[in-house]
Design goal:
heterodimer, B: mainly alpha, two-stranded antiparallel ribbon, two-stranded parallel sheet, 4 strands
C-alpha cells in the first residue's frame, strides 16, 4: 500500500508541475489544485499508514495511526480551498484587466 | 493566568470582524474605530515588551493544554520587539491611509488591514511550525486582497505572480512540515529542539530535507534572491499605505529563519547542525548586491522603494547568516531600522508623486514641485536612513553587522559587499533626488497646483522617521536590548525550559504511537 500511495503522490505532483509550467492561468490553477492534493496526501502519510485499525485510538489496540496529521490535513484543505477560490477570481480579473490568460499578462 | 500574550491576535480579529460589518457606518466612525484598534495593539505590544525585557519568557498555553501537545504562544524579547515594530508601522500607515483618504475610503480596507495585522502578529507569537503555516496563510490572504485593492491592471498582474508563487510556497511549507513531523513526531519549536539532536542517522536526512524545504519557503517570504523577483513590482504597484505595512511582511520570513534555525537546527542539533548555514550567506550577499543594483536601475521612485526592501532584506540576512550572537543582535537592530526606513520611504514617495502633476513618481524632468522644499527634506532624511549614512540608525545597524562579521572567514567579502551596496544605494538616491527635485521644466500654464499634503499625511512618515531617530538617540539601550534578545536565540535552553518546563512527556512517549 505504501508503494501505491507514493506513486499516487508522485503522479499528482508531476502532473501539477507540468501544468504549473504551462504559464496560462487556468492550467496553473489546476496545477496548484493537484499540488495541494499531493501535499495533503503526503501530510496524511506523515502519521504512518495503518490499515484495519481504529481511526483514532481504542483500548487494547496496539497499532493505531497518529491522529494529529489528520487534523493538520483538515486545516490545510480548508486553507487551500480558500486560496484556490481567491485565485479563480483573480485569474478572471486578470483576463479582464490584461486582455489575456498568460500569467505575465498582455499576451493573447 | 495572564491572558495578555493572546491579545495581539484577538484584538485585530475582533476589530476586523466588527469592521467587516461596518459598511453602513459613517466613514469617520470606521476610521476612528480602526485607528483606535491599532493604537490599542501598540499599547498591548509595548506592555508585552516591558514585561519580557526584565522578566522571563511568557508562554501562553491555549485552552490550558500543556506543551508540547497543546498550542502555545511564546513571547520572548525578539517576538515582543517585532510586535511593537509592527504596531508602530501599522499606526503610521493607517494614519496615512486615513489622511490621504484614497484607499481607506473603500469599505473593506480597514477589515483587511486588521486581518493582515492578525496574521503578522500571530506569526511572531506562535510556538509551533504548523501555526506558523496557518498565520502565514492568514497574512498572505489578507495581503493579496490589500495588494489588489483598486484592481488596477498593474496590481492585478503583480498580484497574480505573488499569489501563484506563494501558493507553491505554501505547498512546500506543508511538505517540509510533514517530513519533520514524520521523523520528529512534534512540531513545537522547543520540543523540536530536544528531539532533532537525538534523531537516528536513518531519520536525519529526511529531517534535513524538511529543514531545507522550510528554508526555501522562508526565502520566498523574505524575498531572498532566486525567489525575490516578485517583490519590487508587487510592492511598487501597491498603494502607499499598504506597501508601508508590507515592509513588515518580508521581515516575517526573516523572523521565521531566526526562530527556527538557531533553535532546532543550531550547532547543538547533532547530524543536522547548522543545516542552513552553507546556503544562507551566499544567497544573502547576492540579494544585497542585486537589490542595490535594482535601486540604481529603477526608473521610478516606487520601484526603487521596492528594490530597497530587497536590499535591506539582503543586508539583514547577511547578519542572520553569521549564526552568532553578535550577528543575531545586528540582525534584530537592523530589522527594526530597515522596516521603519522602508515604510517611511513608501509613504514619502507617495507624497512626492502626488505633488508632481505631470511626472508622478517617474524619474523624469517635470515642472517644479509646489512643495518641493518640504517634501525634499522628508525625502532627504528618508534616503539618509535607507542608505545607512550617519547620523540616522541605518549607520548604527551597518556598523553592528560589519562588526559581527569581523571574525567570519568570509569577512572580506561580506565587508566589501555591504559597503559597496551601500555606496550604490547612496548614488541611486542622490541621482533620484536630483532628478525629482532639481531637474525641472517650466510648468504648463493654467494647470492648478496640487494641494499641500495634509498635516496628518505628513505626520505619518514624520512619526516613523522620529522612531528611526530614537533608535540612534537611545541607541545604547536599543543595542543592549538587541544583544539580550540575541543571547536568548543563541542559547535556546532558556526558551526550551520556558515552554516545556521541568517535567514534561519525554519524546519517547509519543514514539509509542508508531
Amino acid at each position: 500500500m505504501e508503494a501505491l500511495f507514493a506513486i499516487a503522490i508522485g503522479t499528482l505532483t508531476s502532473c501539477a508541475v507540468y501544468l504549473l509550467l504551462r504559464a496560462r492561468t487556468f492550467p496553473v490553477l489546476l496545477g496548484l489544485t493537484l499540488l495541494s492534493y499531493a501535499v495533503n496526501l503526503f501530510l496524511f502519510a506523515s502519521g504512518r499508514l495503518v490499515v484495519a485499525s481504529a481511526p483514532l485510538t481504542d483500548q487494547g489496540i496496539e497499532h493505531f495511526p497518529d491522529p494529529l496529521p489528520q487534523a493538520l490535513v483538515l486545516t490545510a484543505i480548508v486553507i487551500g480551498f480558500g486560496m484556490t477560490a481567491l485565485l479563480v477570481v483573480l485569474a478572471l480579473r486578470a483576463i479582464h484587466a490584461t486582455g489575456g490568460d498568460h500569467v505575465d499578462g498582455g499576451e493573447r | 493566568m495572564n491572558h495578555l500574550p493572546i491579545v495581539p491576535i484577538l484584538l485585530p480579529l475582533i476589530a476586523g470582524s466588527v469592521l467587516l460589518l461596518s459598511t453602513r457606518w459613517p466613514a469617520t466612525a470606521r476610521h476612528a474605530f480602526s485607528l483606535a484598534a491599532v493604537v490599542a495593539q501598540l499599547a498591548v505590544a509595548i506592555t508585552l515588551l516591558v514585561m519580557v525585557t526584565d522578566g522571563p519568557i511568557r508562554v501562553y498555553a491555549l485552552g490550558g493544554w500543556a506543551p508540547p501537545f497543546g498550542i502555545v504562544l511564546v513571547v520572548d524579547r525578539l517576538a515582543a520587539a517585532l510586535l511593537v515594530l509592527t504596531a508602530i508601522v501599522a499606526c503610521a500607515s493607517l494614519l496615512y491611509a486615513v489622511a490621504r483618504d484614497t484607499e481607506a475610503a473603500a469599505p473593506r480596507f480597514h477589515a483587511l488591514f486588521q486581518f493582515q495585522l492578525l496574521g503578522i502578529q500571530g506569526a511572531f507569537l506562535t510556538g509551533d511550525l504548523f501555526n506558523l503555516f496557518v498565520f502565514f496563510e492568514v497574512l498572505l490572504i489578507a495581503s493579496y486582497a490589500l495588494l489588489l485593492h483598486g484592481l488596477a491592471a498593474d496590481r492585478v498582474r503583480a498580484a497574480l505572480h505573488v499569489v501563484v508563487l506563494n501558493l507553491i510556497g505554501s505547498a512546500l511549507f506543508l511538505l517540509g512540515v510533514a517530513l519533520i513531523y514524520g521523523v520528529a513526531g512534534t512540531l513545537n519549536f522547543a520540543d523540536l529542539a530536544r528531539v532533532i539532536p537525538a534523531l537516528t542517522s536513518a531519520d536525519a536526512p529526511l529531517a534535513r530535507i524538511g529543514a531545507l524545504l522550510l528554508l526555501v519557503v522562508f526565502a520566498l517570504k523574505s524575498a531572498l534572491l532566486p525567489l525575490g523577483f516578485w517583490l519590487p513590482r508587487a510592492y511598487g504597484a501597491a498603494a502607499a499605505a499598504v506597501a508601508a505595512l508590507f515592509a513588515v511582511l518580508t521581515k516575517v520570513g526573516v523572523y521565521a529563519v531566526l526562530r527556527v534555525y538557531p533553535l532546532a537546527f543550531g550547532p547543538q542539533a547533532g547530524e543536522l547542525a547548522n543545516v542552513a548555514e552553507p546556503w544562507l550567506l551566499p544567497l544573502a550577499l547576492a540579494t544585497l548586491a542585486f537589490g542595490a543594483l535594482g535601486v540604481l536601475a529603477a526608473r521610478s521612485l516606487r520601484l526603487a522603494a521596492g528594490w530597497v526592501v530587497l536590499y535591506s532584506v539582503g543586508s539583514l540576512l547577511v547578519a542572520v547568516a553569521l549564526f552568532s550572537a553578535d550577528g543575531y543582535a545586528a540582525a534584530i537592530y537592523y530589522t527594526v531600522h530597515s522596516t521603519l526606513a522602508s515604510a517611511a520611504l513608501f509613504l514619502v514617495v507617495d507624497l512626492v508623486a502626488a505633488d508632481r502633476t505631470t511626472a508622478g513618481d517617474r524619474l523624469d524632468a517635470a515642472d517644479a514641485m509646489p512643495h518641493g522644499a518640504l517634501l525634499g527634506s522628508f525625502f532627504f532624511f528618508t534616503a539618509v536612513a535607507v542608505a545607512g549614512v550617519p547620523p540616522l540608525s541605518g549607520f548604527v545597524g551597518k556598523v553592528l553587522i560589519l562588526d559581527a562579521a569581523g571574525a567570519h572567514p568570509a569577512a572580506a567579502l561580506i565587508w566589501s559587499s555591504l559597503l559597496g551596496a551601500a555606496l550604490v544605494v547612496i548614488v541611486a538616491f542622490a541621482r533620484a533626488g536630483s532628478a525629482v527635485f532639481w531637474r525641472t521644466v517650466p510648468a504648463p500654464a493654467g494647470a492648478p497646483p496640487p494641494p499641500r499634503p495634509s498635516l496628518a499625511a505628513l505626520a505619518a512618515p514624520a512619526a516613523i522617521l522620529g522612531c528611526v531617530a530614537a533608535l540612534v538617540i537611545w541607541g545604547g539601550s536599543a543595542t543592549a536590548f538587541a544583544q539580550a534578545a540575541a543571547r536568548d536565540l543563541d542559547n535556546p535552553a532558556g526558551y526550551i525550559e520556558a515552554v516545556l518546563g521541568g517535567d514534561h512527556a519525554q519524546p519517547d512517549d509519543r514514539r509509542r504511537l508508531r
